[in-house]
Amino acid sequence: MADTPIPVTIYHNPACGTSRNTLAMIRNAGVEPTVIEYLNTPPDAETLRRLIQQMNITPRELLREKGTPYTELGLASQHWTDEQLIDHMLKHPVLINRPIVVTPWGTRLCRPSEQVLDILPLAQKAPFSKEDGELVIDEQGNRTNA
User: Fold this and answer.
1) Which among 8, 10, 16, 25 is annotated as catalytic?
2) What does the pLDDT profile of the chain (146 residues) look like in tens digits?
3) DSSP state for residue 97 in the 8-state scheme
4) Which of 98, 104, 129, 140 is buried deepest, with most CB atoms within 10 A?
5) Strand ranges for the chain from DSSP E
């Protein structure tokens, strides 16, 4: 009997090291996720609202500042409503922080990348180090920075 694939989705930016590390850890657990390059295929309003709700965060907590029009749009101002912030993210997907991972065990903004291990409680298939060399999973399959 074949194993049933575990449904995992990552909202991914291949130019982001954190996102690449997160994707690599998912694959190191033996899972091939659905990869959504959200800058090319952004979530619609309903999906974005659902992700925010599932992560139990506010739209402001999902905003990315670095490398985005955050400052130019004045998004640091507290006068913006949640719906207005969501509208800005829909118009400028680069404002959506990443990577967002959805698994049967939860949905999380995986910053730092090893947070994916909290919502993907499967054994890692091999030791794992981030691109910067930081060891995350040791030879025995244990998390080194839990």
Assistant:
1) 16
2) 446 789 999 999 999 999 999 999 999 999 999 999 999 999 999 999 999 999 999 999 999 999 999 999 999 999 999 999 999 999 999 999 999 999 999 999 999 999 999 999 999 999 999 999 999 999 988 898 76
3) -
4) 98
5) 9-12, 34-37, 100-103, 106-109, 128-129, 135-137
Phi and psi at 51, nearest 5°, equal -60, -45
Q: Which fold has domain 45-96?
A: Glutaredoxin (3.40.30)
1-38+98-146 and 45-96 agree in CATH topology: yes
Please enumerate in sequence order all residues whose Cβ is within 8 A of that of 98, keeping only pairs 6 or more positions apart, or say none.
11, 12, 13, 16, 18, 19, 38, 64, 109
Residues 1-38+98-146: name the CATH superfamily.
Glutaredoxin (3.40.30.10)
Whole-structure pTM over 0.85, yes or no? yes
- Please name the residue that has the structure tokens 């982001």: 16
